Amino acid sequence: MVLHPEDEGYSVEIPDIDNGTWTQGEDLKDALLRAQDVIGAMLEDKSDYPKPSELEDITVKDNDIKTIVYIDMEEYRKNNPKTVRKSVTVPEQLVVLGKKQKLNFSAILTEALKNKLEV
């Protein structure tokens, strides 16, 4: 990954993903966090990851900074879950009562599944 200092913050080049992916950050810490986020987003549906370039093989200009960014894809997926629409069947009376109380059925089902699966 290459950090390019700008007048304000950094632009971030990630050459190994999708023939070059870019993001930006307001400061060095923000740039690194955003790099992790864009890497996670680009790879979340993949199981075959691109091979990272060797740092010595990346060419940079004067003030550019070569660095490595670490991302745990399992942790990323856990903290950034993709939602899936599911049809469920529940007793009509529970639906009527739930709507009267303005319950969020998706949130309740998600919580119940997490409890049942102990995650």
From TrEMBL:
Domain of life per record: Bacteria
InterPro entries: HicB-like (IPR031807), TTHA1013/TTHA0281-like (IPR035069)
Gene3D superfamilies, per database record: 3.30.160.250
Listed Pfam families: HicB_lk_antitox
Domain HicB-like antitoxin of toxin-antitoxin system intervals: 3-95
Name this protein carries in UniProt: HicB-like antitoxin of toxin-antitoxin system domain-containing protein
Species the sequence originates in: Companilactobacillus kimchii DSM 13961 = JCM 10707
